[in-house]
Amino acid sequence: MQIEWAERNMPVLMLIRERFQREKPLAGLRLSASLHVTKETAVLARTLAAGGADVFLAPSNPLSTQDDVAAALAADGIKVYAWKGMNEREYYNAIGAAIAHSPQVTLDDGGDLTITLHKLAMGISDESIQYARETAGDLDFKALVKGIYGGTEETTTGVIRFRSMEREGSLLYPIIAVNDSYTKHLFDNRYGTGQSTWDGVLRATNALIAGKVVVVSGYGWVGRGIAGKAKGLGARKVIVTEVDPVRALEAVFDGFEVMPISKAAEEGDIFITATGDMRVIDYNTMLRMKDGAMLANAGHFNVEIDVDAVEKNAVGKREVRPFMVEYKLPNGRVIYILGEGRLINLVAAEGHPSEVMDLSFANQALAAEYIVKNRGKLTPSVTKLPEDLDIEIARLKLKAMGIGIDELTEEQRRYISAWALGT
């Protein structure tokens, strides 16, 4: 029923599925995906399978899998290796199993599948690679990588990782940065994360946001969404912390206070990180916080809040609610860390609403088709989905919502394309 509800609210992806069912553009394709296993991801997996792909689905976070969804997909015949609450070994066993599927296209959310595959091909070993080898087996990973047409990346963190690999010359196959599509980051990151982050915080705490001081670290599209929703929920003050002068200035012009995290630490009631970087809130910052401060993370990896440091230094710890752990600090104050410092919207809630994932996963489906159509023509680089496909997704979404827009007249087209016309 959950998947059916998501399908009802994902009309663009369902239109793509109808076409995929007729045309079979992915016929015979082996596709491995490392994505959050949610009801919306199930709609994408079914769409890819309708297009003819042999789909293997692994998680992209140890705590984000919806077990009933995973079971339903397995019953559909889609290969799934995921459950909620995996430990590190189990998680990388799942990634290894996705690699053992010998994919020709990879889909990623955060980059763990693609980067693990690159490490295996390059002979790089660490603990995660040892775990992945347990299920990946003794494949010729270099040959496997050479046979991959390309991959996709869903989120900002993963795109940053792949662009770093591209700069270093270590990227071995093409990556479509789905996150960079306008119909992804302008909507998913801002409206989807903005709403679902607060959904996770509210489920974990049942706190009243009205009257509180909220601190948002990072003012990219995700931070913008979180800060805007905090204001809408009645926060008394919303403070933004940033390292980028342009984004900091934008936050000021949007009506938020901007200050360093060291100062914001003394004012905030609720802290949410959204930067993609590590130790944004470190232990010394926690020591400056008010008694009872709540900390959550909206970035992909669990590194933005230094949970390890507080685990090491706290003089007391107890779980007071599901996904809410109280730490007593040496100075006598307590703080609450939500969702183990992992993605709060998927740990304590259900992730983004289906309506916004309709856009994101339409990009994923069309990116997979684009990679197959252009196999052998793409170079090992990070590129966007072609703009015409991005625009088509927006057009289909507007149509599904019953919204019409204007069209340029021929005279208007000539005017904006001509250089000689002046005052």
UniProtKB/TrEMBL annotation:
Reactions catalysed: S-adenosyl-L-homocysteine + H2O = L-homocysteine + adenosine
GO molecular function: adenosylhomocysteinase activity
Cofactor: NAD(+)
Domain S-adenosyl-L-homocysteine hydrolase NAD binding: 189-351
Metabolic or biological pathway, per its Swiss-Prot or TrEMBL entry: Amino-acid biosynthesis; L-homocysteine biosynthesis; L-homocysteine from S-adenosyl-L-homocysteine: step 1/1
The protein's Enzyme Commission number: 3.13.2.1
Enzyme class, broadest EC rank: hydrolase
Residues noted as binding substrate in the record, renumbered to the chain: 38, 109, 154, 184, 188
GO biological process: one example: one-carbon metabolic process
One Pfam entry name: AdoHcyase
GO cellular component terms attached to this protein's record: cytosol
Key word Mitochondrion present: no
SUPFAM superfamilies named among the record's database cross-references: Formate/glycerate dehydrogenase catalytic domain-like (SSF52283), NAD(P)-binding Rossmann-fold domains (SSF51735)
Major localisation: cytoplasm
Keyword set includes Chloroplast: no
Subcellular location: Cytoplasm
Residues reported in the UniProt entry to bind NAD(+): 155-157, 189, 218-225, 242, 298-300, 345, 352
Note describing how the cofactor binds: Binds 1 NAD(+) per subunit.
Domain of life: Archaea
Keywords linked to the UniProt accession: Cytoplasm, Hydrolase, NAD, One-carbon metabolism
Gene3D superfamilies: Adenosylhomocysteinase-like, NAD(P)-binding Rossmann-like Domain
UniProt similarity note: Belongs to the adenosylhomocysteinase family.
Biological role: May play a key role in the regulation of the intracellular concentration of adenosylhomocysteine.
Protein name: Adenosylhomocysteinase
Organism encoding this protein: Thermocladium modestius
